[in-house]
Write a structure and sequence with these properties.
Structural class: alpha+beta
CATH superfamily of the largest domain: Creatinase/methionine aminopeptidase superfamily
Number of strands: 17
Distance between the termini: 34 Å
Strand order of the largest sheet: 4-3-2-1-5-6
Strand content: 15-25%
Order of helices and strands: HEHEEHHEHEHEHHHEEEEEEHHHEEEEEH
CATH class of the largest domain: Alpha Beta
Length: about 425
């Protein structure tokens, strides 16, 4: 792995917190992701299951975790199963974790080979009163591919039909919503790498470059600094395509007078960063571009101040809508009187700002988290307003990663240029 390992004490604390919420006498199982095929004998790069990583720190395929706090044998209260290596694997794929390395990384003393899992788990199932199984229960997840978790759930139901089944996801969503110091350190490192990539882009961009060349500069900086690469598909959208929210073609030439909306973030230690900046191709904003940019920046600054303990997500959304409407009226995109008479189920601002203002951030770029109730210290959210004017070919979005602290919001990207004067000055130096 490229990144520096997280101390095992982090994973030990996570397992203890998870186990404290299990029903008495129950057992929980977590599995690594599949390695997915491309074509012929090719495969996509492996990406660990986030919940398994959160509980073990193991970043390797064919890994399983069993947590059984009330197991009859002390050694079976936490068990890690890993892939057994051999000479063939070592030659073709490289070394895999040894048992001692897995112990050191996870803090789990009992480590078996993955091939012994079914034999050992059968004995433990007979002791357990309930079995906790995991699944991807993110609100925006689309279940189009059967996962290893799906197959294992079906296997348990078929072979142990009389056992009570429970869900691990609600517990993990609650735990992962509040970030620890170790997690903030990982995200901050990812933000630093992302900021360096943006500085690189400011020096590189000029009329005539292609969007994919900008993407290449970003990715170069990511890899150079131990990142595994982009935390999500980078959006490098120039001209009218800045109004396409998930534009990832990145194949056009950037023309003089256009804006480039860049939404990208590095991943470090499996933790994501998420940045959006919009810059002029030629290094100088036009008067209208400046006007719209300042409105988006104003929305960002005002919205960020609302990310504090005690505020509710519902109140936050209502306040942001009011701020957006005020800015759109200033820009003469909305009429004040029409806004007063609008149908609340079809708000007029949605024509120019059609996406959400914030999402949770962590092991996923759209991380798990509970958006009901009050905001709490330790929550990590993006703040990403935008204004998209298709008829003018202007799309501007700005985004920072914000940690909610007892004292209020902390911008983990406050060192990354965002003011018009900063951006224009840095681009002049290129």
């Amino acid at each position: 792995m490229r990144y520096l390992p997280i101390n095992k004490s982090f994973f030990i604390k996570n397992r203890e917190a998870f186990c404290s919420k299990l029903k008495k006498g129950s057992l929980a199982i977590f599995l690594s992701h599949d390695i997915y095929p491309t074509n012929a004998d090719g495969t996509f790069p492996f990406r660990q299951n986030n919940d398994l990583f959160y509980l073990t720190g193991i970043d390797q395929e064919d890994t399983l975790l069993v947590l059984f706090p009330e197991a009859s044998e002390e050694k079976h209260k936490a068990i890690l199963f890993i892939k057994e290596t051999n000479e063939h694997i070592a030659i073709w794929e490289g070394a895999k974790l040894t048992k001692s390395e897995a112990r050191e990384r996870s803090g789990i003393e009992t480590v078996y080979w993955e091939k012994d899992f079914e034999k050992i788990i059968h004995t433990l199932f007979l002791e357990a009163t309930a079995i906790y199984l995991n699944a991807n229960e993110h609100g925006r997840a689309e279940k189009t591919v059967q996962t290893k978790e799906d197959r294992y759930t079906a296997w348990v139901k078929q072979n142990y039909p009389l056992h009570q089944l429970e869900r691990s996801s609600p517990i993990l969503h609650e735990l992962r919503t509040i970030k620890t110091d170790e997690e903030i350190e990982q995200v901050s490192r990812a933000c630093k790498i992302t900021g360096d990539a943006f500085q690189r882009v400011l020096k590189f961009t000029k009329p005539g470059v292609y969007e994919f060349e900008i993407e290449a500069e970003i990715t170069h900086e990511f890899i150079r600094q131990r990142s595994s690469g982009p935390a999500y598909a980078s959006i490098i959208a120039s001209g009218k395509d800045a109004c396409v929210l998930h534009y990832v073609s990145n194949d056009k030439k950037c023309e003089d007078g256009e804006l480039i909306l860049m939404d990208f973030g590095s991943a470090y230690g499996n933790y994501a960063s998420d940045l959006t900046r919009t810059i002029p191709v030629n290094g100088k904003f036009t008067p209208r571009q400046k006007e719209v940019y300042q409105s988006v920046l104003s929305i960002l600054k005002q919205s960020t101040e609302l990310l504090k303990p005690g505020n509710t997500f519902e109140s936050y959304q209502k306040s942001v809508v009011q701020i957006v409407e005020e800015e759109l009226i200033k820009l003469k995109l909305l009429d004040k009187d029409e806004v007063k008479k609008q149908n609340p189920d079809q708000p007029l601002y949605r024509k120019y700002f059609m996406h959400g203002i914030s999402h949770f951030l962590g092991l996923d770029v759209h991380d798990v988290g509970n958006r009901k109730g009050e905001m709490k210290a330790g929550m990590l959210l993006t703040c990403e307003p935008g204004i998209y004017i298709k008829e003018e070919g202007i799309g501007i979005r700005l985004e920072n990663d914000i940690l909610i602290t007892p004292k209020g919001p902390k911008n983990l990207m406050d060192f990354i240029p965002i003011e018009i004067a900063e951006i224009e000055a840095l681009m002049r130096q290129s």
